[in-house]
Design a protein that fits this description.
Layout lengths: L1 H20 L6 E5 L4 E5 L4 E8 L4 E11 L2 E11 L6 H18 L3 E10 L5 E13 L2 E15 L2 E12 L6 H5 L2 H8 L2 E2 L1
Antiparallel strand pairs: 1-2, 2-10, 3-4, 4-5, 5-9, 6-7, 7-8, 8-9
Keywords: Signal
Protein name: Lipoprotein
Length: about 190
């Protein structure tokens, strides 16, 4: 009987140690040569291509995203041909306006912080991070950290939107939440070519 109890205890200990070793976040480097970037995702992302209307035309947008618990990690990329590169700033303003207006309409808020990202050539390039709270009835329902990056490439421009959407009520301080390691790794390991 003692041996049976010992086997059960050892079996339970092995099972719990295996569960502890299987991480919720399964980090992997994702190469996107077509969209000209590499990124570190906390799981295998799904990829979606779609056409979006913009100024009487359609542009191809590629989205790679993965959902882990209450978080959606995503990278959106849009290539603007050389003859349309002058639209870059207007497009970013429209993307920002869509999110900012939605946050303000819900009673949420938008905070901005200077940051930097590292290009594939290991250069640190300044960028702004936006921390957005979407509210309902005075309570934060969702929060988001997002940055927009523009990179010229082979006579065209790429517009990237790197973001994490956290869907959980009352998350506390936005900046404190999104500076946790699991979010920082995602933002710091995005490298456009």
């Amino acid at each position: 009987m003692f041996k049976s109890a010992l086997r059960v205890c050892i079996s339970l200990a092995v099972i719990f140690s295996l569960l502890a070793c299987s991480p919720k976040l399964n980090w992997r480097t994702v190469q996107s040569p077509e969209q000209k970037y590499s990124a570190l995702f906390p799981g295998k992302p799904d990829k979606l291509d779609r056409r979006i209307p913009y100024q009487d035309q359609e542009l191809k947008q590629t989205l790679e995203a993965v959902k882990i618990d209450d978080d959606i990690y995503s990278i959106s990329s849009i290539r603007l041909p050389a003859n349309q590169a002058d639209m870059t700033q207007k497009m970013i303003e429209q993307l920002q306006s869509n999110l900012f207006d939605r946050a303000k309409a819900s009673g949420g808020k938008v905070l901005v912080e200077e940051s930097a990202y590292q290009s594939s050539e290991s250069r640190r390039i300044p960028v702004k991070d936006y921390f957005i709270a979407f509210s309902s009835n005075g309570k934060t329902q969702q929060s988001m950290r997002v940055r927009w990056i523009v990179r010229p490439s082979d006579s065209s421009s790429w517009v990237y939107q790197v973001s994490v959407l956290h869907a959980n009520a009352e998350t506390g301080d936005l900046k404190t939440l999104f500076f946790k390691e699991e979010y920082e790794s995602f933002f710091n390991e995005f490298h456009p070519e």
